[in-house]
Structure formats: structure tokens, C-alpha cells
Design a protein that fits this description.
The complex is a heterotrimer of chains A (397), B (102) and C (188). Chain A is an all-alpha fold and 397 residues long. Chain A contains 15 helices and no strands. Chain A has two domains: 46 residues, no CATH class; 259 residues, no CATH class. Chain A is globular and about 80 Å long. Chain B has 102 residues and is an all-alpha fold. The chains are: A mainly alpha (397), B mainly alpha (102), C mainly alpha (188).
């Protein structure tokens, strides 16, 4: 495309600029259009989990329900309360969408299609993810509403805390592939990393679920406590933007899982036919995303102190131990720094798989032991002091 | 490329801004933010000198990394101090904390 | 200075950095000051990218914006009654402003070529250099290796981790609620 523009008569710098801008627009528009379909898909899945039918009136199978919703949301009155901090209030939804779309710049759609192949790709993901937290805080503070402010407090506690296990999980594929570039990580997965590091995938999914504020970790917008959290005062398209950002962020976690652990665009003939690679990536992302929706629809919400306890007393130590053990094993196996084919990867992957199974067993044993002691303690308290049950029920620590 | 002194001027301006903030602001959190600005000015200098003088030797970048670490530690302890002072005296004005002053 | 794409980006990033910085020290509303701090830090990250240190730019965004600035904003929200003060500067602010301005003039006179043009021989002409050697492509890898190289930065690296640990424990101890409850009424 740069060459074409230069032929028309643009200077080289300008041609590169235009080509990049076009790429940005294509990637961003794809992400936002995908939202239209994705929200329908998620609502259908959610409905099935709850034994409902889901959207089924507008269009075949309710396919264009989202379009109808968009029209409705666009026509709604744009309410701005008294005491609202105008600039911050209006900027927050924009920043929320921006933070998510920026992630797509480093998503390798196929062997040749990638926005830009940064050599600090994984790091860039984290950096951009941090901006999403800022959007939530801005929205919560500027709304001049107690519930929104409480949600912002929770956002700081939850999103910043869960970034720690997320980093620890992200470091494992970086370690295995020897690169921080997302494209290089995909190329190095001659065998998907999900087989070499299943524990890491679990860590990543849990912390990812917390980062997007969904499922059992949706304390940012817990309806029964905070009405709807940080976006309580938003209406019309501003609320719509938060909605889009939330969905897109969730789906992006699925895409990242596919890229980092499920081999990205890799599949039969994907090297040669670019569109096939894109197809594989979408299938894998949808699967990972389906797992996230499954968890979201199945588990009840956790309490805020349990949430933080779970992070600092379980996920972070497990993440650290996992990273150290994987690094040690990877270093101990000879030849892991030059894996270039399926055959090379078999032995290290099997070794890591065994180590992971051992880690799962140890963690399971520790958890079972702790659960047993906890139960014994509570039973002793109930039997000894004859306390009313509700004072005991919350004793999680 | 842009000549080196321009980066240094930007860093100097940022440092002076931070210096003024540290000396003149009353709120302890604002003072902490101004300190962050000064640390960032130092970082710009470190990276600029690394880029222009010794791009092969990574000392400048390594020092910048250590500045990050120190900044993180400083903010953690500084904010903890401010919060604990606020709990005791219901104030985050630096002038109100003057028991050791004579 | 001719206006190449790079110099334009440099000017924009400098404007963001300095404008954000000025607003941080002058904003009446502390929450806004925190947001301006983020803007300023983002500008610094842009300068790092221009200086071909993308890794540091990433660290800047993750550590400074993602952690430090957010923590500062949390502290601002936790001390709500003082986001708006009658006077944001102390009584000596004019003197301090003069001091900072003097310091700035001093620094500029050292680093910018003005002194050289005014005929001061001792001025360091190194600062006008424009075309440094290229950064090797594997500089990020080398930075990682240098940081854990016993001959280079391993000791500072380990000391830094100890420092972080100490800061972590110190911060937890300082704000731990049990201690505050025990000390209630006392003046420490």
C-alpha cells in the first residue's frame, strides 16, 4: 500500500503515515464491528447457561438485536448531573474504549497480518491495560456519586492487585519463547504452550477475569451493593461506550489467551493462506472467551476481602512458584533455547507437563488440607461456644 | 535527530517545575507528585545521555530502571506516611506537621 | 531546527510533558493534578520512545501510570476533605518561584548552546551533537543480561529488590489498622 501511494505522488513519509493510519482504522473498526456480533453471541451463550433462549425477536435468531439496542442507546437522553466534573466525566468512556482498542494493535491476526510487531509486545499489553484502570477511576470519581466512588476504590484495589499474578502468568510464555513480541511467541509455539504450562493458563484466565471485572470478580459493578458501580451516572451512548469497552476487553482476554497459549493463528496451511490463520485465531479466541463466559455465568460473586485474600495469599505465591519452577526446568533441559520444529519441542513440553501435574497435585493437597482444618475450626467453634451460625459463616481467614 | 541539548532543556524545565512544586505546594500529596516530576526529569537526562553518548553501553538505561524502583518504593512509603498522618491529625498539609520544628 | 517528523513529535511530547507538569503544580483540584501527572508521565514515555528506549517507555507506563499515579490518586480520594484548599501554595511561594526559575536559567545556561554562542569557551560542545550511533537491535536483551550480570548490575539489582521488600513491609506496618487502633489518642 505504501508503494501504491508513492506512485500516486505522495512523499515516502506521508505514504507510510497514511498506510499506518489506514491500518489503525481497519483494526479498530474491525474490533468495534465484531462487538455487534460478539455481544449477540455472548447473550445467546449466557441465556443457554441460564436455561433461557436469549435474544430471538429482531432478525433471524435475534442476530441484529445489538443493532436495535445501539439505536435505542443512541436515542436516549444524555444526562449530566449537578456537581459532575465535566471534562473527566466525558473523557472516561472515551479512554475506556481507547484502552481496549489499543491492545488490538499488537494482535497477530495471521502470519503476515499484524498492526505493528512491537518487540515489547507483551509489555505493551500490560501498559495499555493500565489505562483501562484509569478510565474506571476517572468515571467513578467524576460522577459525584457515592456508589460510583466506592466502585472506584474497589477498582484500584482489584485491578492493581490482579495485575501482579497477570504479569507473573504473562512472563511464562515470554520465558518459553524467549521473546516479548506477540508474533514471535506465536511462531515459537510448535506445540501450544497450554500443554507446557497448564497452570499458567489457569492463572492467566483467573487474573484476566478479574482484570475485566466479570464473573465472580464483578465487584466493580456489583448490582446488589453498588447499583451499577462506576458507570451508574452514565446514560445514552456514554454508557454504551463503557458497555462496548467491557465486552471488547473480555473478548480481548480470550484473544490473548489464544495467542499466548493456544498457538494463535497456527493451524494446518495457516502459514500460506493468511485468511485461514485469521479463521483459526478467531475459533481459538471464541473458545477461550466461551470459557470466560461459562465461569462468569456459573460462579457466584465473591466478597471484596476474600477477593484480595485470594489474590495476595494464593494467586501471587502460586504465580511466583510457578514462574520459578518453569524457569528452572526450562533451563535444566538442554536445547530449549533453539527449538525450531515440532520434534524439538516434544521432550521439553512433556517434561514441563509432568512438572505442572506435580504442581497441581501439591496445590490440591495444600488446599484440601487447609479446607479440612478450616472446617474443623469452624465446627469446633460452633460446637464449643454455641455461637449463632451467621457470625461464623464469614470466617474465611 | 533532535540535538541532545533540547532533551536536556526539557528535562531542566521539568525538574524546575517539580522543584517549585516541592517548595511551594502545601498539600503533602502534591509535594509527592512534584517529586515524581523531578525523578522523571532525571530519567529523561539519563536516557538522553545514554542515547547520544554511549548507545552500546546500557548503563543509562540500567540507572533509569533503578530510578523506577526507587520511585515506586518512595511512593509506597510516602503515601503510607501521609495516610497515617491524616489518620492522626485529619490533615495532609505539610505545614501542620511541625512537632519537630523549632 | 528543521521540522522533520521526528522533531515535530519531539515538540509535541515535550509540550505534553511540560504542560502536564505545570498543571500538576498549579492545579487547585488535587484529583485533576493527579490526572495531569499521568499526562505528563505519558509525555515522558513518548520521549523515551523517541530516544529508542521502548522498554523504558513500557516500564514508564506500567509502573508510573499504572501503579504510582493510580496509588497517588487513591490517596487523594482517601483524603477527600482537602481536595480543595483556600490556598494551594505556602507563604514563601514567590521566593520559591524565583528560586526555581533561577535554577532553570542556571541549568539552561549550562546545557543549551546559548553560552557557547555568547563566547564562553568552556561550554561543552558535546551537547549539540545530533547524529549518535544507532542502537543495536538487541539492546533490550542486553539490558536484561546486564541487570543480572555479576560484573555489572547484579548487586544493585538485588539491593533494589531488598529495598522494594522493605518499602512493602514498611508501608503495610505504617497503615496497619491494628496499630492505629492501639495508638488512638496517643501522639506516637
Amino acid at each position: 500500500m505504501t508503494g501504491l501511494l508513492q506512485d500516486i505522488g505522495f512523499s515516502r513519509d506521508l505514504a507510510v503515515l497514511i498506510a499506518k493510519a489506514a491500518g489503525v482504522i481497519v483494526v479498530a473498526v474491525f474490533g468495534l464491528l465484531w462487538t455487534l456480533l460478539g455481544i449477540w453471541l455472548e447473550r445467546k451463550w449466557a441465556a443457554r447457561f441460564q436455561d433461557r433462549v436469549g435474544p430471538n425477536r429482531v432478525g433471524p435468531f435475534g442476530l441484529i438485536q445489538t443493532v436495535a439496542d445501539t439505536v435505542k442507546i443512541l436515542l436516549k437522553e444524555d444526562i449530566m448531573n449537578k456537581g459532575v466534573d465535566r471534562w473527566v466525566f466525558n473523557l472516561a468512556p472515551i479512554l475506556a474504549v481507547l484502552a481496549v482498542t489499543l491492545i488490538w494493535a499488537v494482535v497477530p491476526f495471521s502470519a503476515a497480518w499484524i498492526g505493528t510487531d512491537l518487540n515489547i509486545g507483551v509489555f505493551y499489553l500490560l501498559a495499555v491495560g493500565a489505562l483501562g484502570t484509569v478510565a474506571v477511576i476517572m468515571a467513578g470519581w467524576s460522577s459525584n456519586n457515592k456508589y460510583a466512588l466506592l466502585s472506584a476504590y474497589r477498582a484500584v484495589a482489584q485491578l492493581v492487585s490482579y495485575e501482579v499474578p497477570m504479569v507473573l502468568a504473562l512472563l511464562v510464555p515470554v520465558l518459553l519463547s524467549g521473546s516479548m513480541s506477540t508474533q514471535e511467541i506465536v511462531r515459537q509455539q510448535h506445540i501450544w504452550y497450554v500443554f507446557a504450562a497448564p497452570l499458567t493458563v489457569l492463572l492467566f484466565l483467573i487474573s484476566g477475569q478479574a482484570e475485566i471485572g466479570r464473573g465472580p470478580f464483578d465487584l466493580l459493578e456489583a448490582e446488589s451493593e453498588l447499583v451499577s458501580g462506576f458507570h451508574i451516572e452514565y446514560s445514552g451512548m456514554k454508557f454504551g461506550m463503557f458497555y462496548v469497552a467491557e465486552f471488547l476487553h473480555a473478548f480481548t482476554v480470550g484473544v490473548l489467551t489464544a495467542i499466548l497459549f493456544l498457538g494463535g493463528w497456527r493451524g494446518p496451511f495457516a502459514e500460506d493462506v493468511a485468511i485461514l490463520g485469521f479463521f483459526y485465531l478467531m475459533i481459538k479466541s471464541l473458545f477461550a472467551y466461551w470459557v470466560l463466559v461459562w465461569v462468569r455465568m456459573t460462579l457466584p460473586r465473591v466478597r471484596i476481602d476474600h477477593l484480595l485474600d485470594f489474590n495476595w495469599k494464593f494467586l501471587v505465591p502460586v504465580g511466583l512458584a510457578n514462574l520459578l519452577i518453569v524457569a528452572l526446568v526450562w533451563k535444566a533441559i538442554p536445547g530449549t533455547d533453539q527449538i525450531s520444529s515440532f520434534g524439538d519441542a516434544v521432550v521439553p513440553t512433556l517434561a514441563l507437563l509432568l512438572v505442572n501435574v506435580a504442581m497441581f497435585l501439591v496445590i490440591g493437597a495444600l488446599l484440601a488440607d487447609r479446607g479440612r482444618r478450616e472446617r474443623a475450626r469452624i465446627e469446633a467453634r460452633v460446637a464449643g461456644a454455641d455461637l449463632p451460625v451467621e457470625t461464623v459463616a464469614g470466617a474465611g481467614d | 535527530m533532535v540535538p541532545l541539548w533540547m532533551y536536556l532543556v526539557v528535562a531542566a524545565a521539568l525538574f524546575s517545575t517539580g522543584l517549585f512544586g516541592v517548595l511551594a505546594r502545601r498539600n503533602a500529596i502534591a509535594i509527592l507528585m512534584s517529586i515524581e516530576l523531578m525523578l522523571n526529569a532525571v530519567n529523561i537526562n539519563l536516557v538522553a545521555f545514554w542515547r547520544y553518548n554511549t548507545p552500546l553501553d546500557l548503563s543509562g538505561q540500567a540507572f533509569a530502571v533503578f530510578v523506577f524502583v526507587v520511585a515506586a518504593a518512595e511512593v509506597a512509603v510516602g503515601l503510607a506516611l501521609i495516610i497515617s498522618i491524616y489518620r492522626k491529625r485529619q490533615s495532609v498539609i505539610a505545614e501542620d506537621v511541625n512537632m519537630l520544628k523549632w | 531546527m528543521e521540522l522533520t517528523a521526528e522533531s515535530i513529535v519531539f515538540l509535541i511530547m515535550s509540550a505534553i510533558t511540560l504542560g502536564g507538569g505545570l498543571l500538576v503544580v498549579s492545579a487547585r483540584n488535587l484529583f485533576h493534578a493527579g490526572l495531569y501527572l499521568m499526562v505528563s508521565l505519558l509525555g515522558v514515555a513518548g520521549l523515551f520512545v523517541l530516544l529508542s528506549a521502548p522498554f523504558l517507555a513500557g516500564v514508564q507506563v506500567v509502573v508510573y501510570i499504572g501503579a504510582i499515579a493510580i496509588l497517588i490518586i487513591l490517596a487523594i480520594m482517601l483524603t477527600p476533605s482537602v481536595t480543595q484548599l483556600p490556598a494551594i501554595f505556602n507563604r514563601q511561594w514567590a521566593f520559591n518561584l524565583a528560586l526555581a526559575a533561577f535554577f532553570f536559567v542556571l541549568l539552561v545556561s549550562v546545557v543549551s548552546p546559548i553560552m557557547g554562542e555568547l563566547g564562553v569557551d568552556a561550554w561543552n560542545a558535546d551537547f549539540t551533537q545530533k547524529n549518535p550511533a544507532d542502537v543495536p537491535a538487541d539492546s533490550i536483551v542486553n539490558l536484561g543480561k546486564d541487570l543480572v550480570d555479576p560484573d555489572k548490575y547484579m548487586l544493585p539489582f538485588e539491593v533494589a529488590s531488598v529495598l522494594l521488600m522493605a518499602a512493602l513491609i514498611g508501608a503495610v506496618l505504617l497503615v496497619s489498622p491494628d496499630k492505629a487502633k492501639a495508638d488512638e489518642g496517643g501522639e506516637d
